[in-house]
Predict the structure.
Amino acid sequence: MYYENPSLRRSGEERLIAWHNTLLRNPDGKITGILSFGTDITERKQMEHELMRDFGRLEGMVAERTKQLSESEEKLTSILESSPDAIVVIAPDGKINECNHATLVLLKVPTKEELIGKSFLDFVTQKDHKLALEGMAALQTQGYAKDIDFTILSKNGREVPVSMSASYLQAKSGKLGDIVAIVKDMTQHKAEEAELKKAMKLKEQFISHITHELRTPLVSIAGYLDYIMADNMGPVPESIKGGLAVARRNTERLVQLTNDLLDVRRIEAGKIQLVPELLDLREILDQCIKEITPFFYKKKQILKLKIQERPLRVQGDRIRLNQIVMNLLSNASKFTPEEGQITIQAEEDADTITVQVSDTGIGIRKEDLKRVFKPFAAISKPSYDKGTGLGLSVTKGLVEAHGGKIWAESPGEGKGATFIFILPKKVRGGEKEERGGERGEGDR
């Protein structure tokens, strides 16, 4: 017989004793006594209570963690299924392990069972197998791959252009595990891209047609106005000369606009062709300064020159280099107030020539510095600006056509600006392009 019974020690401490009682019998089987063994189980019972308490706490933690994992799994599944892009899990051997609903929609497959276990390449068009394999090779090298473009074949036989980005899942062993790929349907994007190319082509055709149609009559009008104003058709009354002068200036602006539009079109199409020859850039700078001096004189502007006396040898297109310098000088004069200062600096090293045109004019806001060379850029300008909005764009294209680069610097509004361009001393040549019209002032 076994029972547990509390017992008090002399010290008053209570202990728990486990008693084991055994009946004693004589040879005849009669009970002659009881043998009792007592064992102190106080510590053991305390340990059992603590273990039971810890076990209960552990059960609660496991239940809570299981609940959290279940919620996380549901949340992850919800995120994957709500994605508009196909998400595919691919095993190292190329077979599909898992996918979301968008994958079924993309491939026109009713259930996952038709995809799971099949090779991913089974759904790539034969012509694009090489592209897909090259993307996978890049994935193995880098651990990820972005924007792999190829065509997949849906179950209904339709070819779908897609773009895939993929990365490896890290396995517990530290080795690379399955591949997670996000596949985006590019059908709409490709259609929009085609429409944009079509629109750009129409725009180029329109600009080309309009500018060519306008330039010839405008040049003719300008010539006749000059002829009339020179009294070649008889004396012109003073009351009419003012009106003719206005008509001549506006005709000149239209001629300049058509020329700039043609240059922009050529630059955008990569058709600016240079007629390079060995030149002294200093001579071109001197010539441009002489041409622009009347504008400086009219506004009482101060011109400072920091140009070396020896020649600045460069290989380039004389007409186009003249156009670059004139655009920058006239631009500086236009946006510099009366009695302002304009500085021209030119220096060379072994391979390049650097020219700077600085002014003390209206300056350029920091946010406009990157946009200043864009055609018709939306940049704050004074109300007196009557440029075409294309001068700096054309200038940038011509500098780059020479293999150079150009940029603008300015401390801010009202603090002046500096335009810097660098030209290599040697450029590759090309056939002579169509020339026409006169070149006017540039536009900031």
In short: Residues 191-268 form a domain with the Helix Hairpins fold (CATH 1.10.287).
